[in-house]
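Intended use. Records such as the Flavodoxin entry shown here are meant for training and evaluating sequence-to-structure methods. They are not intended to support clinical decisions.
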Amino acid sequence: MSKTLLIVHHTPSPHCQEMFEAVVAGATDPEIEGVEVIRRPALTVSPVEMLEADGYLLGTPANLGYISGALKHAFDCAYYQLLDSTQGRPFGLYLHGNEGAEGAQRAVDGITTGLGWVKAAEYAVVSGKPTKADVEACWELGATVAATLMG
């Protein structure tokens, strides 16, 4: 039975797009079998899609020291449906900020701790233009979270 990895992202800039593409490339690596990767913009993901996923990758810019309004909206719409039924599911996070991303990391930590989700990999946090190492970290993030679902 195949597992589902849901990538919920807000990708408003070329830097976020580059990170998103690297995460998707890692998550869809041919060596990872039995994991379907679904990509949804944070403003259009449904609570049902979030409920049905077996694991999550979250992508957001750090806007004014917080997660994007789009990602917050996704959680606002689905939080109570997810609360008791998604505990223990793995997740990963990639963040892009031009200044500090600590507030955005704290926000995601608070939301995911409340849901009982399990951090499956180190966050990929990038400031400014992604370097080759940043892109590789995003690829690793995608591959690691997807691999945790292979079981």
